[in-house]
Amino acid sequence: MQKTIPVKMQGNRRFVLQPLNDTKTAYTDEAVNIIGLVDLSGSFTIEETSFPADDDPEFMVATGAPIGTLTGNMRGFDIEKYPLIYPAMSGTNGVWVGGDLPVRRFGFTFDEQVEEEGVKSVNRYVLFNCRATNLPDIASATISNSVTEPRVIPLAITVMPIFYDRADGSRGRLIYAIFNSVKHPTMFAQFADGLVMPTESMVEPV
Hints:
3 helices
């Protein structure tokens, strides 16, 4: 019988974000390491529709695109960085949020610590195609003895698939990737300084 080894995973750090263009074919500008990620969690789903025939309730199954919904919190998030995530503009005249500003698409990575049988490593999560579904909250409290923590800004993020072309002309799609610093060192290093578009050779090596 195969033994399952417990793996301890904890923490998050190094929240690196990079804008994605409107056609979702390339990342633009430089990647930005945003400090202050408190927590991030969510779920991913794939919708399926079954079509019966010949007394088989699953004679044909159509699979929809995977979609994810994430929620999290930022602490100490610089208002000048709002346009990286939210529909906002910043400059010498201030930070302008909402209105007719375009939705920002972006990809991001973050790391977590891993310990398996005494060996420590890092998991790097890569989410390729994201957009915020909220605007930054405004919340304040007077300084007092009972207020000891800086305020947090909630994040609400929708994660959509990213596509890559195959040599046979078909298209593959995926929603996120995980690279371990010990088990997948090449890919872990490739996403060290920002995001790159996935390719067939990355996802489906021969």
